[in-house]
Amino acid sequence: MNKHSRRRSRSACLAANASSGRAKEKERVNAQPGPAQGPPDARVHLVVGPVGAGKSTFALQLAGASRGVRLTLDEWMTELFRPDRPNTGVVAWYVERAGRCVDRIWHVTEAVLDAGVDVVLEIGLLQRRQRAAFYRRVADRPLTIYVVDAARDVRRERVEQRNRLRGPTFSMVVPPDVFELASDLWEAPEGDECQGRDVRCFRTDAGAGD
After folding, report:
1. Of 38, 71, 80, 98, which sits most exposed with the smallest number of CB within 10 A?
2. Which residues in 158-193 are b (16+ Cβ under 10 Å) and which e?
3. pLDDT of residue 31
4. Among residues 199, 172, 184, which one has the least CA distance to residue 73?
5. How far is CA 81 from the centre of its chain?
6. How many other CB atoms sit within 10 Å of the CB of residue 137?
7. Residue 162: CB partners within 8 Å, gap ≥ 6?
8. pLDDT in the model for residue 32
9. 150-160 pLDDT, tens digit each
10. DSSP bridge partners of 202
């Protein structure tokens, strides 16, 4: 092979190597993972019902089944405000602080949902107007509503027993007058509130309550 032939051969080899290198680089780039896919839409599980219906027991079971994070208004109120509870004017005192707690609970809820984890909420919302405001907040999130209920006399007995025994779902003493007032305030979802929403109803009259 003469000098010119060797030069042409060497140039051809360099070109081939360069082409091969570019092809490998293209394969390497194409093999890189694309942008991370976001988590599937996490769901809000809202548990509502009158006092003593069994909501806390139900919410605990639901959180375990859904691997969700349970957030409960009574626990927040107990930890943050119980030492400051007045002897009179309890209802107005409670309502104002409960509203603030629900606001903060929702901020935590959004962070958990954005991480792809379901949230089980037990945050009161006894009245339809309160739930209507909540629905506006959660409008862009998947939502299931669980209505947990039992007869009033059954609930009264449960609350009296819970006040005495202070078992796993106990958070604060519910005096008889507060039980009656909260029971009077309860408005079950019906009509337009249920329209187009995933609403599931459960009776707990035969089981132990919250």
Report:
1. 38
2. bbeebeeeeeebbbbebeeebbeebbeebbebeeeb
3. 41
4. 172
5. 23
6. 14
7. 52, 169, 170, 174, 209, 210
8. 46
9. 999 999 999 99
10. 148
The H or E element that residue 113 is part of is helix 90-114
Low pLDDT (below 70) residues in the chain: 1-40, 207-210
Asked if 206 and 149 count as a contact pair (C-beta separation under 8 A), the reply is no
The reported pLDDT for the residue numbered 137 is 94
Residue 47 tokens read as 């548990």
Cα 104–Cα 57–Cα 130 angle in degrees, nearest 5: 40
Query: Quick one: tokens of 96?
Result: 């104002």
Residue 40 identity (one-letter amino acid):
P
Query: Which residues sit opposite 121 in a β-bridge?
Result: 46, 71
Q: What value does the CA radius of gyration of the chain take, rounded to a whole number of Å?
A: 30
Q: How far is CA 150 from the centre of its chain?
A: 24
Which residue in this structure is represented by tokens 């305030």? 185
